[in-house]
Structure formats: C-alpha cells, structure tokens
Specification:
Blueprint: E1 2-3, H1 7-20, E2 28-29, H2 32-41, E3 46-50, H3 58-68, E4 74-78, E5 91-93, H4 99-110
Parallel strand pairs: 1-2, 1-3, 3-4, 4-5
C-alpha cells in the first residue's frame, strides 16, 4: 500500500511496483481514510508512506492503523526520518525518489 500526497507519485509508484511482479496487490492513495479502509480488507505486507500526509499527522495515521489493522507491515518512509513508537521504520528514502528505487526496496523487503 502506498500513501502519498501527490496523485502523480501515487500512480507512478503503484504502476511500477505492479510491473515488477504481477502477483503484488498494490494500491496507492492520497486520502488517508480511504487507505485505512482498504487496509482493513487487504493484507498489507509493505506500507510506503510520506512523512507529511494530507489530512493526518504520521503518528495519528499509525495510531489508527494499529487500532484498525492487526498486522504490522514493513514500512518505507518517504521523507525525513520519523521516530515511530508504534511501528519500526524499515527503510527511509528521500521524497521524490524514483519509482524504480521504491520498487527495488519493496522487493528487498519481501524477499
């Protein structure tokens, strides 16, 4: 699952990850509430998320995620390193990094 501020980035990240492996069930969001609703119904193994979201602070998003979804995903954070006391951040990448770099990191986390 991808949660970012830019619709363009969301589409690019989703498309590139799907191209890497057609078995990946990938969905990208710019709306945090829709992302949480989708995560409730789908198993999220990797969460790609920006450090600054549109409507919720990152800590608030994580708090809602933990409350609503029983699984703990591996997390790729886009932006500055954020200390999370709820989840372990597995990888921190710069905002604006290419979709290819994100795809490579997703594949590494899943193998």
């Amino acid at each position: 699952m991808v949660v970012v501020n830019s619709a363009q980035d969301a589409m690019e990240y989703e498309s590139d990850i799907k191209k890497a492996d057609k078995k990946y069930n990938v969905k990208a969001f710019i709306d945090e509430k829709l992302a949480l609703q989708w995560a409730i119904k789908n198993s999220v193994k990797v969460l790609i998320i920006e450090d600054r979201l549109s409507h919720l602070q990152l800590a608030t998003f994580f708090k809602h995620y933990k409350k609503l979804i029983p699984s703990s995903p591996k997390i790729i954070l886009l932006g500055r390193d954020s200390k999370s006391n709820i989840y372990t951040i597995n990888k921190v990448l710069s905002k604006g990094v290419s979709s290819r770099v994100i795809t490579t990191n997703v594949q590494r986390l899943l193998t």
